[in-house]
């Protein structure tokens, strides 16, 4: 089951409505040159190095966001389920990063000394602030796009013809992997559970942060394509 099918099966749910809201953003994401050229193996190595290094910085903060969101869960069942799905995603991504950092000549010292790009800095601070200061339901909605959009993109690229010798095939395999999909589906389900218990005002806030995080997902890939650095 791909991410688009999942949204169809959720018809009438909070997450289905939220996914529909970001349809224009998803169209822009699917057209990003970074993803197009990653899928056909023609992405310039310096752009991918920039992207994967920024993604490593992002994941460090994202993992902390997941821990904060888990701590706010209303019952032990949701705490454990959320931690399990979060662990799946982090484990998968850490393995991917380790391989690519080596493949593209990025050392541990490079990661330690790296500075987040303006977009990476803004996105991670948005997520951390939302996780710390907003309710469980709202915070969960903010971290969901990273799971869901990567699943959707990975599935879409995975279904294209395999390009022999594609240096980025491991990336495609990771986000098209059933283990990553399972983690994403679980977070979608938890978000719908949280939405059912939320007030109308809170549900509006959930939609707002879901849309904003989705915009940041587009910005993150676009900033890597542009090799974004601080202008001054």
UniProtKB/TrEMBL annotation:
Q: In which pathway does it act?
A: Cofactor biosynthesis; thiamine diphosphate biosynthesis
Q: Which UniProt keywords apply?
A: Hydrolase, Thiamine biosynthesis
Q: What is its EC number?
A: 3.5.99.2
The record lists the catalysed reaction(s) as: 4-amino-5-aminomethyl-2-methylpyrimidine + H2O = 4-amino-5-hydroxymethyl-2-methylpyrimidine + NH4(+); thiamine + H2O = 5-(2-hydroxyethyl)-4-methylthiazole + 4-amino-5-hydroxymethyl-2-methylpyrimidine + H(+)
Q: What class of enzyme is it?
A: hydrolase
Origin: domain of life: Bacteria
Pfam families from the entry? TENA_THI-4 (PF03070)
* CDD domains from the UniProt entry: TenA_C-like
Ranges for domain Thiaminase-2/PQQC: 19-226
Asked whether the keyword Hydrolase is assigned, the reply is yes
Q: Supply the InterPro entries for this chain.
A: Haem_Oase-like_multi-hlx (IPR016084), Thiaminase-2/PQQC (IPR004305), Thiaminase_II (IPR027574), Thiamine_Salvage_TenA (IPR050967)
Family of the protein in this entry: Belongs to the TenA family.
What NCBIfam families does this protein's entry cite? salvage_TenA
Q: What does this protein do?
A: Catalyzes an amino-pyrimidine hydrolysis reaction at the C5' of the pyrimidine moiety of thiamine compounds, a reaction that is part of a thiamine salvage pathway.
Question: What is this protein called in UniProt?
Answer: Aminopyrimidine aminohydrolase
**Organism of this sequence:** Rhizobium croatiense
Q: Give the taxonomic lineage as stored in the record.
A: Bacteria, Pseudomonadati, Pseudomonadota, Alphaproteobacteria, Hyphomicrobiales
């Amino acid at each position: 089951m791909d991410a688009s099918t999942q949204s169809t099966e959720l018809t009438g749910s909070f997450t289905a409505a939220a996914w529909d809201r970001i349809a224009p953003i998803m169209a822009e994401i699917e057209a990003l040159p970074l993803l197009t050229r990653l899928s056909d193996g023609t992405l310039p190595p310096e752009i991918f190095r920039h992207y994967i290094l920024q993604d490593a910085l992002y994941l460090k903060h994202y993992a902390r966001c997941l821990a904060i969101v888990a701590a706010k869960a209303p019952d032990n069942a949701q705490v454990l389920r959320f931690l399990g799905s979060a662990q799946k995603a982090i484990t998968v991504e850490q393995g991917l990063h380790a391989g690519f950092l080596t493949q593209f000549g990025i050392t541990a010292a490079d990661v330690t000394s790296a500075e987040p790009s303006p977009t990476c800095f803004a996105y991670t601070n948005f997520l951390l602030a939302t996780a710390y200061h907003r309710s469980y339901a709202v915070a969960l909605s903010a971290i969901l796009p990273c799971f869901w959009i990567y699943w959707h993109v990975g599935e879409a690229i995975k279904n294209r013809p395999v390009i022999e010798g594609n240096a980025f095939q491991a990336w495609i395999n990771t986000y098209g992997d059933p283990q990553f999909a399972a983690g994403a589906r679980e977070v979608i389900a938890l978000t719908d559970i949280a939405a059912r218990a939320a007030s109308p005002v809170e549900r509006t806030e959930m939609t707002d942060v879901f849309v904003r995080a989705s915009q940041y997902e587009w910005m993150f890939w676009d900033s890597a394509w542009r090799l974004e650095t601080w202008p001054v």
